[in-house]
Amino acid sequence: MKNWKKAIALVASAAALVSVAACGSSSAGGSNDGKKTVGFVAVGPEGGFRTANENDIKSAFKDAGFDLVYSPTQNNDQQKQIQAFNKFVNDEVDAIILSSTEDSGWDDSLKKAAEAEIPVFTVDRNVSVKDADAKKAIVSHIGPSNEWAGQQAAEFVNKNFPDGANGFILEGPAGLSVVKDRGTGWSDKVASNIKVLESQSANWSTDEAKTVTAGLLDKYKSENPQFIFAQNDEMGLGAAQAVDAAGLKGKVKIITIDGTKNALQALVDGDLSYVIEYNPIFGKETAQAVKDYLDGKKVEKDIQIESKTFDAASAKEALDNNSRAY
Amino acid sequence: MAEKAKEEGNALVKKLLSNNLTWSIVAFILLVVICTIFQHDFLALSWNDNTGGLAGPLITMLQESARYLMIATGMTLVISTAGIDLSVGSVMAVAGAAAMQSLSNGVNVWVSILIALLVGLAIGCVNGALVSLLGLQPFITTLIMMLAGRGIAKVITSGENTDASAVAGNEPLKWFANGFILGIPANFVIAVVIVILVGLLCRKTAMGMMIEAVGINQEASRMTGIKPKKILFLVYAVSGFLAAIAGLFATASVMRVDVVKTGQDLEMYAILAVVIGGTSLLGGKFSLAGSAVGAVIIAMIRKTIITLGINAEATPAFFAVVVIVICVMQAPKIHNLGAEMKRKRALKAQAKAVAA
């Protein structure tokens, strides 16, 4: 009886091991029939933006005739990304696309890539590298500008409150380059009579943003907060619900960055006031840059992708056109 | 006569001082005092016509504490059998995803709630079966479920953060997380009722004692006629079910599931709440009231972080420091410190007297 149970446990664990191993070795390397192999160190499912971005890159590289090996991480785990990156270097792929979860900690891996003469293209999130050898590996950064998005938010607030106003900023998790850049963009452009009462992190989460915003609205009731700059849509939607519950809908302007369908709908409904797009559709540009570089052409160091801004009217138009992919 | 009364009073004070619950409540009051110093109207309550309930910092804190109450209650039962359930956070995400996805696919709201609860119960049953029937380590079993759960949630929503806020007829679910009963947050009331029901079930029947017996020694409990396998299965199933309710609270609050963020790290919060409540991680003894206070304290610490405006970088450290201070306050060694010092002094005096 006991042995029988042990056998079941053994079989079950063996099955689990095999399936894990199978995940690890899925279709990496091997540039057959002259197709160039490109490794994509990705973030994986995280939200509408990420899904749209990664699907677009995947299909663009397929159209451009590359063999793209997609390697997502889980729950923003950088360790898994570094492992995937090193594996691509060992497999000697022709190029690596890196969409990093964190901006630091890439020096060693990039150095290895530089030694193996594998070009690295960072997309969406930039990485900060100290080592000179490691820097050589990065050919180009492709993506919309986070600083620009932050600047747009500041300019919207400047324009709407020429006489000054108080408000909050909801930040993403501490230590991400996105958070830093969106914050820098904001402080570059914001007018001196606009006062940020407090910046709090809500970890990109709708649910947390609601809790944080409710707390901040209580705390600064007497200061008459008039704007909330949420560094992404998800947090903005949470903030909107807290504002609504406090009976301040329409009195507090909420500005968000990303431009997902949900946010645009909320913009039309009057829950949000301004949405700055962070355009995820740049697979074509990325594939072109990789192709140019591998063909020996010169590639720009920083390829900026254009994004749009939305108010209620243009959001309605975009939704009616059904042109949003995410 | 008067001396006797005084003695009794002293005994009562001593009993209170050595009780974990007292110190938890002291810690809670301290946190409230700190918040009130920083924000003078922290305790102020006002009536909000918009939501039909009371409003104020304490109310939002209670609203948030509901989910911690649920997972801490389940975790208490599991831990008192000397096990652990690391999967509660992921179960929250799976249950929330199930509810939001079925709602936005046009399923009736009550059916969606039922589906979410059943999904949580099912995962709890799988945990229970693996632990009780196959005798796998609870830590490993639930760790696997914690990793798998996020995957399941992503499969359910196909990797998206499903938003059901615009779905018609979602009011009942919305009310669970945002509504009010007699001015008090509905989710808090529901959570407290469930905690009381579980408490009655444990303490008014032999169930609680059986759970503790299994936690002390499975083999011995089997010999006294308890069926440890059944008890083990039951506690994991209950934990999964309660985690599903917590998942509904967390997602219904914004009518949106975030497959990565919903319930993230909450298994740790649940364990902290249980430990603050005075339940031993070695099993064999539990206090549901203690865990409930622990759960409210967790919510209060999070509120304190917002009220004090602590930097995003420093919040985990602040959280850790507060929890450690509470645990130190509760440590029996600290309570006995006075007596210990007295004893040492007496010993020294004695040694001196002998030397003289």
UniProtKB/TrEMBL annotation, chain A:
Q: Name one GO molecular function term.
A: carbohydrate binding
Can you supply one Gene Ontology CC term for this chain's record?
cell envelope
Signal peptide as annotated in the record: 1-21
The Periplasmic binding protein domain covers: 39-298
Source domain of life is: Bacteria
Q: Which PROSITE patterns match?
A: PROKAR_LIPOPROTEIN
Q: Name one Pfam family in it.
A: Peripla_BP_4
The answer to keyword RNA-binding applying to this record is: no
Q: Which family does it belong to?
A: Belongs to the bacterial solute-binding protein 2 family.
Protein name per UniProt: Sugar ABC transporter solute-binding protein
Organism (species)? Bifidobacterium saguini DSM 23967
UniProtKB/TrEMBL annotation, chain B:
Query: How the protein sits in the membrane?
Result: Multi-pass membrane protein
Name the UniProt record assigns to this protein = Ribose/xylose/arabinose/galactoside ABC transporter permease
Instruction: Read off the lineage from the record.
Output: Bacteria, Bacillati, Actinomycetota, Actinomycetes, Bifidobacteriales
Q: Which GO terms describe its cellular component?
A: plasma membrane
- Classification via Pfam families: BPD_transp_2
Which UniProt keywords are listed? Cell membrane, Membrane, Transmembrane, Transmembrane helix
Which InterPro entries does UniProt cross-reference here?
ABC_transp_permease
**What is the organism of origin for this protein?**
Bifidobacterium saguini DSM 23967
Transmembrane stretches, by residue range?
Answer: 21-40, 68-95, 107-136, 180-202, 231-254, 266-284
Q: Where in the cell is it found?
A: Cell membrane
Gene Ontology MF term list: transmembrane transporter activity
CDD domains cross-referenced by the UniProt entry: TM_PBP1_transp_AraH_like
Q: Main localization of the protein?
A: membrane
